[in-house]
Structures are given as C-alpha cells and as structure tokens.
Specification:
CATH topology of the largest domain: 2-enoyl-CoA Hydratase, Chain A, domain 1
CATH architecture of the largest domain: Alpha-Beta Complex
Strand content: 15-25%
Helix content: 25-40%
Length: 514
C-alpha cells in the first residue's frame, strides 16, 4: 500500500504542475495567474475539493496520444466563499492553451450538473484558446453541452464568469448566457471572430484589445458587467458579489444583523436636489447615504451610465438598486439603459432579491437613431421586467417622473409595493415647458407678450401638476416624505415586505420583447 500511495502522490503532483514550470513562468510573464493560483485567491482557505484531477483526453490524432496531461487543461471542483458553497472550474492555459476537448468539456459539465442538483452557484474562470482543433466536431459538441447546461441553469442557480485571457469563437457564448461577466483590463479578450478574420471580411484593421478587450466590452458593448486592473481585484470582487446573492432560486439572501436603534435620519439628503429642476446632481450621493455602511456594489458601472444598477443592503437586507442618473444625459432612458436595467431586474427577480428604485427620469430618449434602432422594443424590456417581477419593489421619486417613463420605473400601477416621493417630485405627462406650449398654444400665439404668457402659464402648470400631491391624492404615491426620512422609510418597508407573496399567471414561459 505504501508504494501505491507514493505512486498516487507522484501522479497528483504531476497534475498540480499543469503544463510544467516553463509554461507557468510564461503565464506569469503575461501578468496572469495560473488556474490553481486563481482558485486559491477566490475561495476560502483550504475549502477547495477538486474532482477529476486525473482525467486525460482520449484523442490519438495529430500526435495527441503522446501528449496526455492529467486534468486536461481545466481544474474543477467545489469550495466555499464566505462560508457559502460554490462549484467552479478554472481553465489552465499552460495545458494545450486551455483549449476545450471532449474530456475538458465533460469535466465542466459534471460540476454544472452537480451544482444544479444541489442548488449552488457556478463560477467559471475562463482562459482558453478555444476549441481543440485536433478533436474537430467533438470539441464543438463539448461547447454545446456546456451551453445547454448554462441555459437550463439560468434563473435556477447564479452563474458567474470571469474572462482572464482569450475567449474566442463559440467559447464566448457560455459566459454570455451566465449572469455576470468579469474582465481584466489589457489581459482579457472576448470576440466571435478575431482581428485577422475581421480584416479579411470587412477590411477593418483593429487590435485584439480594441476589438474585444475589457474596456471595449465594459464601455461600448455592455458584454462585461465588471472591469478591473488586475486578477487579484477581480477575484476579490467575485467574493464580494457572493455576499449579496443567494445560493439558488428557492433560497433567500443572507440577512446581516442590523442595529435598528441607531439614528436612521439622514439630514444631508435634504440638500441634494438643486433648486432648478434642470440642474444635474449625482444620484450616487443619494444611494450611498441610504444604504448600509455606504456599501454599494455597482454593476455595469461604465456602460449606459444614465442608469445605475447594483447591489447594497437596506437594514441588513440585500437589495438590487435601479436608479436614474441625472448627471448623465439628464437620466433619460435610452436603448442601452433600458436593456441594462431590464437584465439586472430579471436577475434580482429570479433570485428573490428585493428591488429599490430611485427615480428621476425626464422620459425616453427622442430621435431617429433611437427610434430606428428600436427604442420601443428595448424600452418595453424594462417595462416588462418591472411588471413581471414579484419580489418586493419599493420606489422613491426624488424629482422628475415624466410620461411613459413614470409608468415604467416601477410605478404603483405595475405592482410597486411602496411608492414614496420627495416634495421636489414632479409627476406629469411631460415637462412643464413642453406641456404649457401644447396646452396653451392658442393663448400664447395670440398674446402680445408670448414670453410673459408662457411664464404665467408655466407657474400655473407647475403649481397644479409638477408636484407629487395630485398623485398622492389618488393613492399612486403612498406617502410624500421628507428626504431625511428616506432611509428609515425604506428599512421599514423592506422589513415589512419580507413575507410578501405575489404570483404571475401559470405559463410555460413569458415572451419578453427581445
């Protein structure tokens, strides 16, 4: 037995080296960690239980029969993050460039299947040259098996993808189906076709970084939810994200202990809204003052910045925040903001995370560019997501709530549970000036002094409609509150809504306007 144990240790030590010392040094020279180093930083110390360490590929073509390395380019297993169980895989670029073979895919599928059975998140650390060309269609089939499991797991267990190197061709679609994508600046790339193919087909000359780098996908395409300067920062952020989300769709988010005897009045909120309704302010100033410990984890920070989404805690309860950003495009809703918001809302609803909506929106973005690119269809996604969501939903209108955007941003009419407004709220079909120019068009045109007449009618309109009281009279607003009371009101609301039950009609699935 002693000899057998020694032999086992030798085989496992070989597996731990992956592609060998030279390739590990090469990985480090690119500023990248190895597959196992990444796992060590990500999970709780000593909690990783590896499976399939000794798996080898079964191919013999193109000399592969002479290159068989234990693990076959991916490390898989189970671990804990902040004490919570997770399944994970980490592709090893030192072994066949992390390329996906039949055996490699089977390892990933095995932990996906187990995670789905026991109801725990799956974290994928992607660093791969793509399909293993020598295996042909077998490797392509492996990708499809992974895609299927990504899809079946969607909305059942959280799925998190980190792209820590190249991710090209069909390989990009597994991260794309998952809930969140993390990338590292200058070392992560995602693209369907590389720069050489792009040049051949479209005659465009573009670098790898310009085509599919972290900056591109975090700012322009919206493919990446998070962008970081280093792998260490990225892995730390995944650990942080895990603290906000439950294990599965039946689980509830972990509620932290909270001292309800502390002073919950925030007087600084009284001074944030400018006197002029067209003057911008930073919505982050409000978010940070109403959430616990000023702790807000923003998602899609660099994309469609006119809407803010992210995770925080209110009275110890994990919530998803959706807020208009007056400091960017006046907080208007456009195509990108609508899609960004809708996707985040649907994640929160899938996993029982309550929604806090902070509203200051002048409407949807006008113009041919938006109309021709489908603002109606894309804006409907945001509306659909809010309507469909059955989790606790609380709205605070800080200033503008105009037109259809008032309806869309979790109004009472689409099952908002508690809807509050500050005294500065303006709830109307459209902005006062535009409304006056339409309603009093004839009077203004006949007036000897049109500008004076507009100002007179503007004051009349503002007094009558551009305030929260008409909506409050009809019960569309549950309460008009002093800004300083917001944190207290929200904590009480979310505590009360912990036992909320709401249902949608039975169906196979909805048909969201994609």
């Amino acid at each position: 037995m002693k000899e057998k144990i020694e032999n086992l240790r030798k085989i496992k030590s070989e597996a731990l080296l992956g592609g060998g010392e030279e390739k590990i040094r090469n990985q480090h020279s690119k500023g990248k960690l190895t597959a196992r180093e990444r796992i060590e930083l990500l999970v709780d110390e000593g909690s990783f239980d590896e499976v399939d360490m000794l798996v080898k590929h079964r191919s013999s073509d193109f000399g592969l029969d002479k290159q068989k390395i234990p693990g076959d380019g991916v490390v898989t297993g189970f671990a804990r993050i902040h004490g919570k169980p997770v399944a994970l895989f980490s592709q090893d670029f030192t072994v066949f460039g992390g390329s996906l073979s039949e055996a490699h895919a089977e390892k990933i599928c095995k932990i996906q299947d187990m995670a789905l059975k026991i109801g725990i998140p799956v974290i994928g650390l992607n660093d791969s040259g793509g399909a293993r060309i020598q295996e042909g269609v077998v490797s392509l089939g492996g990708y499809a098996e992974i895609f299927l499991r990504n899809t079946l797991s969607s909305g059942v267990i959280p799925q998190i993808s980190a792209v820590l190197g190249p991710c090209a061709g069909g390989a990009v679609y597994s991260p794309a189906i998952t809930d969140f994508i993390f990338m590292v600046d200058k070392t992560s790339q995602m693209f369907v076709t590389g720069p050489n193919v792009v040049k051949t087909v479209t005659h465009e000359e573009v670098t790898f970084e310009e085509l599919g780098g972290a900056e591109t996908h975090a700012v322009k395409s919206g493919v990446a939810h998070f962008k970081f300067e280093s792998e260490v920062e990225l892995l730390s952020a995944i650990r942080r994200l895990i603290t906000f989300i439950p294990l599965n769709w039946k689980d509830r988010g972990i509620e932290k202990e909270f001292d309800f005897t502390q002073d919950l009045i925030v007087k600084e909120l009284d001074a944030i809204i400018p006197l002029q309704s067209n003057k911008p302010y930073n919505m982050h100033d409000i978010i940070e003052k109403i959430v616990d410990d000023n702790d807000f984890m923003e998602v899609h920070k660099y994309y469609a910045e006119n809407i803010i989404v992210g995770f925080a805690r209110i009275g110890g309860i994990s919530v998803g925040v959706v807020a208009n950003q007056p400091a960017v495009l006046a907080g208007v809703l456009d195509i990108n903001a609508s899609v960004k918001g809708a996707r985040f809302i649907r994640f929160c609803d899938s996993f029982n995370i309550p929604l806090l909506v902070i509203e200051d929106v002048p409407g949807f973005m006008p113009g041919t560019d938006q109309e021709w690119n489908g603002i109606i269809r894309h804006g409907a996604k945001l509306l659909f997501a809010f309507c469909e969501a059955t989790v606790p939903k609380v709205t605070v209108i800080t200033r503008k709530a105009y037109g259809g955007a008032y309806d869309v941003m979790n109004s009472k009419h689409i099952r908002g549970d508690f809807n509050f407004a500050w005294p500065s709220a303006e709830i109307a079909v459209m902005g006062p000036k535009g409304a006056v120019e339409i309603i009093f068009k004839k009077e203004i045109s006949k007036s000897d002094n049109p500008e004076l007449k507009i100002e007179e009618k503007l004051n009349e309109y503002i007094e009558k409609f551009a305030n929260p009281f008409v909506a409050a009279e009809r019960g569309y607003i549950d309460d008009v509150i002093e800004p300083n009371q917001t944190r207290l009101k929200l904590i009480n609301a979310f505590q009360l809504l912990k036992t909320k039950v709401d249902k949608n009609p039975p169906k196979k699935h909805s048909n969201i306007p994609l």
